[in-house]
Specification:
With about 140 residues, the protein is mainly beta. The chain contains 4 helices and 11 strands, in the order E-E-E-E-E-E-E-H-E-E-E-H-E-H-H. About 15% of the residues lie in helices and about 40% in strands. Strands 6-7-9-10-11 form a 5-stranded mixed barrel. Strands 4-5-3-8 form a 4-stranded mixed beta sheet. A two-stranded antiparallel ribbon has the order 1-2. The protein is elongated and about 60 Å long.
């Protein structure tokens, strides 16, 4: 469904603003695409100027940077999502989310709903996770 990206109809004081022009095609936007953890599903969207954008609807692999090389590894689960705690519970992958992979914990550096791929940087390896098992838990649960 289309989201209209228009200015507010109210002034900061609460008064009404009159529209200075009609809606135009360039004012359209899209809903937030929640990239879920699961078998890879993509959607190709036409953008302005006739270009194409690959939108990841679901993804189960990530390109994780380890030192100077990049490895394609399976995503086990979404541990934490600073954008919204509910997104981690729903296994939604966004930029900045902490994911658990076969190599260890990684932070997502790409925007899967815009780029169509999950790129991440390794932040903690599996060897260290075994010695500190509480570090895998989300920070919201550690506070309780």
């Amino acid at each position: 469904m289309v989201q209209w990206r228009l200015r507010s109809r109210r002034k900061p004081t609460g008064g009404k603003l009159r529209p200075h022009r009609k809606k135009r095609r360039m004012d359209r936007g899209r809903d937030f695409t929640a990239t879920k953890l699961g078998e890879r599903r993509i959607q190709i969207v036409r953008t302005r100027g006739g270009g194409r954008k690959i939108v990841a609807l679901a993804e189960n692999f990530a390109n994780v940077k380890v030192g100077n090389e990049v490895k394609r590894v399976r995503i086990t689960r979404v541990v934490e999502n600073p954008a919204n705690p509910q997104l981690a519970r729903q296994s939604v992958i966004t930029k900045g989310a902490i994911i658990e992979t076969e190599l260890g914990l990684a932070r997502v550096t790409s925007r899967p709903s815009q780029h169509g791929v999950v790129n991440a940087v390794l932040i903690e390896t599996k060897a260290r996770d075994r010695s500190r098992s509480s570090s895998i838990e989300p920070s919201s649960q550690l506070e309780k």
